[in-house]
Design brief:
The complex is a heterodimer.
Chain A lengths: L7 H33 L6 H18 L6 H21 L6 H23 L13 E4 L2 E4 H23 L1 H11 L1 H6 L4 H23 L9 H16 L3 H21 L2 H18 L8
Antiparallel strand pairs in A: 1-2
Helix pairs in contact in A: 1-5, 1-8, 1-9, 1-10, 2-3, 2-4, 2-8, 2-9, 3-8, 5-6, 6-8, 9-10, 9-11, 10-11
Chain B lengths: L2 H4 L3 H30 L2 H26 L7 H19 L3 H26 L6 H20 L11 E2 L8 H24 L1 H11 L1 H5 L5 H27 L1 E2 L6 H14 L5 H17 L4 H18 L3 H14 L7 E5 L15 E10 L2 E11 L4 E5 L6 H9 L6 E6 L2 E2 L5 H6 L2 E4 L11 H9 L13 E5 H10 L14 H14 L4 E5 L7 H17 L3 E5 L3 H7 L2 E6 L2 E6 L1 H5 L2 H8 L5
Parallel strand pairs in B: 3-10, 6-12, 6-13, 9-11, 11-12
Antiparallel strand pairs in B: 1-2, 4-5, 4-7, 7-8, 13-14
Classes of the chains: A mainly alpha, B alpha/beta.
Chain lengths: ~290, ~600
């Protein structure tokens, strides 16, 4: 896919790398959604919009002439700040109505998409490549940026395990996941935990949007295409990051294989269809992993 | 039904006048549709034709989401399937009248088949609301991708255009779309006001209770999805003809979300609201999109979010709320009619037990909650299940009404094992269950709740709401004793805790079960209410020959009414004997005085 296939080994290596890096990209995209779903039990349908916001942060940073890497912290902070407002004014009244929360966040997505269109126009934008070129992996030349995405996914995964296992916030969040009523009775400020979690989730989504920019063009509706895929992965993964990684690897791998050997169009629906089937057979998905 | 006898009652009269209003309004609307093209400009006629086709879709979304509680983005897929079926026939085969009919048939049959498959995938025992929403997202995406990969057959990303559709003028399409919309709205309104339509609300309110009233909610939902897909496919047929172009976006999930937005803004659960909402918003979008396209979408998005948060039932709900407030008092009270007692399901086969439990086990992982439970219950017995908290009483009740709950052993009803059966199948075998927390339908009236309990016995009307309500004598007596017969038209949400408990008991008895399971029926009741319930239970068992199993903490109550007492402790059955035996038993005294483990 990335390099001209020289030999059979090289083709297989490329396929393998495609599978792993596709899984990594899916993982990066879906973590923000999983964070929020895991703790708040709310599907944030504005997730696609936060991805778009992150991508436009990269565009804005480019327009300002800053170092392209500055887009990463800018996106995280912007996403988290907007997420904080969203939780307070839109999501908080809807905790008892999870289906309505899906709709309200979808509506928010429409609003954000239109605001971006008003600000930046509806045309497709391109950003500077963060890491251009290819690298040699066991004799196969492969996109450096996709390899970087793999590293980023691992960093996010490890960072999150540390956050959940090693910090006070993580402990509180786990308490809320397991038994919110008890956590509240024990004096945890569950309202604040929800708020912070939502901010982190939106920040991560925006960060993921920035990380996407070298791989895809940027337009006001770009997030929608990624929303459904990540939503399905999260449904399969339940509340666990390990399960999400597994789901990304299996379903993302299937997507690459179908795209390569059958048709890219069918590849585009592989994740969604497989996720629906997995959930039909085992309603808890991979969450017991 | 002889109308003459009921003419004097004000209620049926008011209901009939409401029906008359509906027909008058429908005729006026139809007249406007026919006259519309005469005084509207070309642009408006064109846009409104499309808006009214979309309004038909909004009505189907409302029936699924507003009434039944299934949030769906999938109607777009069925619409696309119908539109493409028509356009493909017209493009590749031709436009003779015969082929036009073929297009119409396919545009209905294909979506129905697709919807039946999707419904089967979506609605299975234990499926969640989230899962239904998930699938409703997947279906449009799959259909869209199939269209993309269809090559010249589907026109791929550019869609199909340039085929010859129905030979109608612009005004003709306007009239066809408009009359179709009026027809769909009228049929939908008649349906949702009928007794059958109330089943949808019952499912939205409390699906578990529906299942335990013997209603197969999965089948209802699958059937509803399939029928509405037919309507949606027909709208697709209209669209393909009227617009002369079909595109992949017509089947996409973004269009599906748009339908939900219109439904929400118009007012879910009102039929007319979503139809008006769709027409108004789509028409205004077309008008304003030239001048301020993004700002307009921004306004719609903002309104939508505000509406979901602050006014979840939409603008139309304000109007209905006001109407109800003005009317104030209760809704319609049907006349109670006693049913003749019904013969036992299995002809008197002497003394064979109704319920036979053998070596029943239930464990969560290594934790055994129930172990080696063996128990028989015969007709006419009133067995009380006692034991301290956590003894496994409620779990045992669940194992008797859900064939998938037990981990080992068998539960037989009339000699047939219930293993693997779902609650509505078990209820059909003559078991009724009353839950610990009163499980009723909060959006219905008392009479409507009771009618739900009869749905599995007599199919409800799809056209009208019956003026009378036939219930078994025993159920009527419960209503009389508790005074509920005076409040048949009252909304359940206004009942007291005790009244809800009595209502649920009356619902369960209306099922005409042979074995009735009651989980703490007297919890939270006053002494008088308790005595009434005790009286009813004794009558049901000793006079009518039902069997009853009762979980109860109040030992005095148990002593007064039981014919047998079974003691459960730490998941085991420690004693099964007469009231005398159990009350005087040392083990029971020790268990109840606490501390000592058996």
């Amino acid at each position: 896919m990335m390099a001209p296939p020289h030999s059979k080994e090289s083709r297989q290596m490329t396929l393998l790398l495609d599978i792993i890096t596709t899984a990594a990209i899916l993982f990066i995209i879906a973590t923000g959604l999983l964070t929020i779903f895991g703790v708040l039990k709310i599907i944030n349908f504005a997730h696609g919009a936060w991805l778009t916001v992150g991508a436009y942060c990269a565009v804005a940073v480019g327009d300002l002439g800053w170092n392209p890497w500055a887009a990463l912290p800018v996106a995280f902070v912007t996403g988290a700040a907007l997420g904080g407002l969203t939780e307070r004014f839109i999501v908080r009244p809807l905790y008892a109505r999870p289906l309505d929360a899906i709709l309200a966040t979808w509506g928010l997505g429409i609003i954000i998409g239109q605001l971006i269109t008003l600000g930046f126009g509806r045309d497709v934008q391109f950003t500077k490549a963060l890491l251009p070129g290819t690298a040699d992996v066991f004799g196969t030349s492969y996109s450096v940026y996709r390899l970087f995405a793999l590293a980023a996914a691992i960093a996010i995964g490890l960072g999150f395990s540390w956050l959940m296992e090693g910090t006070r916030l993580g402990l509180s969040a786990r308490a809320v996941i397991m038994n919110e009523a008890l956590a509240r009775a024990l004096g945890l400020d569950t309202r604040r935990i929800r708020w912070v979690t939502f901010m982190i989730g939106c920040g991560l989504a925006a960060l993921a949007g920035t990380l996407l920019t070298p791989l895809t063009s940027v337009d006001p509706n770009m997030g929608v295409a990624w929303l459904v895929g990540s939503f399905m992965l999260v449904m399969v993964a339940g509340q666990s990051f390990a399960a999400l990684a597994l789901a990304c690897l299996l379903l993302g791998g299937a997507q690459v294989i179908v795209s390569t050997y059958v048709s890219p169009i069918l590849g585009g629906i592989t994740v969604a269809v497989l996720a629906a089937v997995v959930l039909r057979i085992s309603p808890k998905g991979f969450s017991r992993v | 039904m002889s109308d003459a006898t009921l003419d004097t009652a004000a209620e049926p009269g008011r209901r009939r006048s409401r029906m008359r209003h509906l027909w008058v309004l429908a005729l006026i609307a139809a007249g406007l549709m026919i006259a519309g093209p005469l005084f509207l400009d070309r642009f408006t006629v064109n846009v409104l034709t499309r808006s009214m086709i979309f309004a038909i879709l909004a009505v189907t979304v409302d029936l699924l989401w507003g009434f039944t509680g299934i949030l769906t983005f999938g109607q777009a897929a069925f619409f696309g399937a119908g539109a493409y079926a028509t356009a493909m026939v017209l493009t590749h085969l031709g436009s003779t009248p015969g082929l036009m009919v073929l297009g119409l048939v396919l545009s209905i049959v294909l979506p129905v088949l697709l919807a039946a498959a999707v419904g089967w995938l979506t609605f299975y025992p234990g499926s969640t609301d989230f899962y239904a929403t998930v699938i409703s997202l997947v279906v449009p995406i799959v259909v869209t991708q199939v269209i993309y990969s269809g090559g010249t057959w589907t026109g791929s990303s550019s869609g199909l255009v340039g085929y010859v559709g129905l030979d109608l003028s612009l005004g003709g399409f306007f009239r066809l779309a408009g009359l179709s919309l009026v027809a769909v709205v009228v049929v939908a309104l008649i349906f949702v006001r009928s007794d059958a339509g109330r089943v949808l609300t019952a499912i939205r309110n409390n699906e578990t209770r529906c299942a335990y009233l013997g209603i197969s909610t999965q089948k209802v939902k699958i059937a509803l999805t399939a029928v509405l897909a037919a309507v949606t496919g027909y709208a697709g047929f209209l669209y393909a003809n009227a617009s002369g172009v079909v595109a992949p976006e017509n089947a996409g999930f973004v269009f599906g979300t748009q339908l939900v937005v219109w439904t929400a803004l118009g007012g879910r659960g009102t039929v007319i609201g979503p139809a008006l909402g769709a027409v108004a918003i789509d028409y205004l979008s077309a008008q304003l999109s030239g001048q301020m396209p993004f700002l307009w979408q921004l306004v719609i998005g903002t309104l939508f979010v505000a509406m979901i948060i602050f006014m979840p039932n939409g603008l139309a709900a304000l109007a209905t709320g006001w109407r109800r407030m003005r009317r104030g008092e209760d809704g319609f009270s049907p006349q109670l009619v006693a049913l003749p007692p019904r013969a036992a399901r299995v002809p008197a086969d002497g003394d064979s037990p109704l319920l036979r439990i053998e070596k029943l086990e239930k464990s969560y992982g290594s934790q055994k909650v129930l172990e080696d439970i063996t128990l028989q219950v015969r007709r006419g017995e009133l067995v009380s299940l006692v034991g301290p908290n956590g003894a496994g009483k409620t779990t045992l009740m669940r194992c008797m009404t859900d064939g998938k709950a037990a981990s080992g052993g068998t539960v037989r009803i009339h000699g047939t094992s219930i293993s693997g059966m779902v609650p509505d199948q078990i209820v059909a075998r003559g078991i009724g269950r009353k839950f610990q927390v009163a499980s009723v339908f909060d959006s219905l009236t008392v009479a409507e709740c009771l009618r739900m309990a009869r749905v599995s016995h007599e199919a409800p009307s799809f056209l009208r709401s019956a003026d009378s309500l036939s219930l078994p004598q025993a159920a009527i007596e419960i209503l009389r004793l508790t005074g509920l017969d005076q409040h048949l038209g009252r909304a359940v949400s206004l009942l007291s805790h005790g009244q809800k408990q009595s209502l649920e008991l009356a619902m369960v008895v209306s099922l005409e079960p042979e074995l009735i399971l009651l989980d703490e029926p007297t919890a939270g009741l006053t002494a008088a209410e308790r005595a009434t319930i005790g009286q009813v239970l004794m009558k049901l068992t000793s006079e009518l020959g039902l069997a009853a199993i009762l979980v109860e903490h109040d030992l005095d109550f148990v002593r007064d009414i039981s014919s047998r007492i079974v003691v459960l402790h730490q998941g085991r059955l420690v004693l099964d004997g007469t009231v005398e035996e159990v009350v005087n038993d040392e083990i029971v005294k020790r268990i109840y005085s606490g501390g000592d483990h058996v």
